[in-house]
Amino acid sequence: MFEQVKLEYGFGDLEPTIDTTTMETHYGKHHAAYTAAFNKFVEEAGLSGKTAEEILGNLDSVSDTALRNSLRNQGGGYYNHNLYFAELSPQGGGAPTGELAAAIDAAFGSFDAFKEKISALALGQFGSGWAWLCTDAAGKLSVCNTGNQDNPYSLGMGVTPIFAIDVWEHAYYLKYKNVRADYVKAFFDVVDWNKVAANYKNR
Questions:
Q1: Distance (Å, rounded) from C-alpha 29 to C-alpha 44?
Q2: Where residue 119 falls among pLDDT bands split at 50, 70, 90?
């Protein structure tokens, strides 16, 4: 059975970047609902024992259209949020170091250039969706954005997501209203780059 990632911080610990009410609703309501629904549809599809990555990466194997769409939407909501919540920390901010920093420099020229590029994707995503930092098997980094709860697995991109920015309105609207740019800019203040570096190392 799939479970929500266990938070290593309290709902109020990401203030002022992410407010307590948003965290309570986002994690306690939205993500909890995605997780429960995903478990239901996984069982219905006979896919128990598979990882979320395996399920989302092989949606075409599910012949029932409605069930396939439910797995895409609820499974994406489960997986995407697990990655998102796990990369946050009240001690976040700053910049990555070591292997991840070198890979970012190689792919984008600098950390600031990376932030500018992924922020543009987050801001340019029309409607709900995500912006991603991904790696291929060789460690080459790339960025992309996806709509709704799609991710690089469900779209068959052949890369592994290691960092995500949630730009669904429920992630920021209570505090930032319609100014997505303020949320995206502040978001980097609570990113734990050590967690992202671990995702990169474990690709």
A1: 23
A2: very high
